[in-house]
Amino acid sequence: MNRISITSFIAAAGLWGWGAAQAQSVTLYGILDTGVEYINHASANGSSVVRMPGNTGELPSRWGLRGVEDLGGGYKAVFTLESGITVGTGGLGQGGRLFGRQAFVGIDGPLGLLTFGRQYSMLYRAIFDADFIGPDIYGIASLDAWIASARSDNTVAYQRHFGPVTVGATYSFGRDASPTGGTNTPGSGTCAGNLAGNSEACREWSAMLKYDVTAGGVAVGYDRQDGGPGATANLFNGIAPVALAGSGNRDSRFLLDGYFKLGNFQLGAIWLNRQVEFNGPGAKNITSNQYTIEAGYQVTPSFLIDGLVQKIIDRQQDTRASMEVLRATYFLSARTAVYAQAALLQNSTYAAYSVSGGGSSTPGKGMNQFGMMCGVRHSF
């Protein structure tokens, strides 16, 4: 990352009560990651596709600004503005938002970090260390696309560390203010909230508890989205999303994970339980369970091999899928890497999960998929 230091001098001793020079540090950072992908059975008629994916490679492309100002007494002001980039076209991600990935401001200090704005769910932060494959084009988000985009608008967030223990929580007053038909939060529709007389509509809250030491750690996380006008729940299994228009409806995820490191080897295990609940007579709720094992080995300082195996089960909609991923990354420098990866997904008879998180590539029901991608990424 490149750092730009900006120092402001206030000459008048009485200006807003300040009598000394104040300094602010601003960091410009980013990642550019893209390549070429092949997927077979990329449509209902079984056609294949070769493309430059729009969403991600090993990591989603982005640029951002992160700032810190020392306020004294152990406190500091912080902010982050982060924009998603579609490298192949130069477009903006997150439905065309300028700062669609993150946009928040807050205060950090001895009592913890309190921030306000567009921010990640604590479930995303709880999964971060165990899911070292991360928001890869072939990863956990292939079976639940929301995981890689677990963020909300109009959010208050709090985090605090107690030695190896980290606690955190968020609360959103209106989780998705995208224009109608926007693509900000995959599978969740639009749900702006802030409705007079309906304090539950489009709310979202999350919580996290983590324990981390040098050798590994464990975490639990929870996220709940309340229904409201425009809200939907997509199970990403080829079945049409279900409406969550009533504020009494819920879409919640519970996470339990753990990881450990031994020399150059690391292992992660993740269980994600999802509950879509409907408030009404005769309503049938939907439950899915996703199980993931990830492993990685640093063969040399410049060469990393990692991968995962995972399975998802949705009994109510009678859809299941299994998926295997193998990835190799070669680091040309501290900032630049090239990679090759391949994934195989097996759908059950009525399922149409997609192996790729790189954009529209949904197979026909019961079709298996193979995907592979070679790419390059650079960080700054």
Short account of what is shown:
The protein is mainly beta. The protein is built from 1 helix and 21 strands.
Please characterize this protein's 3D structure.
- The protein has 380 residues and is mainly beta.
- The protein has a single domain (2-379), classed as Porin (Beta Barrel).
- The chain is built from 1 helix and 21 strands.
- It has one helix at 122-127, and strands at residues 2-8, 22-39, 49-51, 62-72, 75-86, 91-92, 102-109, 112-120, 151-162, 165-172, 204-213, 216-226, 232-233, 242-243, 250-262, 265-277, 286-300, 303-314, 319-331, 336-347, 369-379.
- InterPro entries: Gram-neg_bact_OMP, Gram_neg_porin_domain, Porin_dom_sf.
- Keywords: Cell outer membrane, Ion transport, Membrane, Porin, Signal, Transmembrane, Transmembrane beta strand, Transport.
- It is found in: Cell outer membrane.
Radius of gyration (Å) = 22 Å
Count of individual domains: 1
Structural class assignment: mainly beta
State the helical fraction.
under 10%
Physical arrangement of strands within the biggest beta sheet: 2-4-5-7-8-9-10-11-12-15-16-17-18-19-20-21
List strands and helices in order, with pairings:
Elements: E1 2-8, E2 22-39, E3 49-51, E4 62-72, E5 75-86, E6 91-92, E7 102-109, E8 112-120, H1 122-127, E9 151-162, E10 165-172, E11 204-213, E12 216-226, E13 232-233, E14 242-243, E15 250-262, E16 265-277, E17 286-300, E18 303-314, E19 319-331, E20 336-347, E21 369-379
Antiparallel strand pairs: 1-2, 2-3, 2-4, 2-21, 4-5, 5-6, 5-7, 7-8, 8-9, 9-10, 10-11, 11-12, 12-15, 13-14, 15-16, 16-17, 17-18, 18-19, 19-20, 20-21
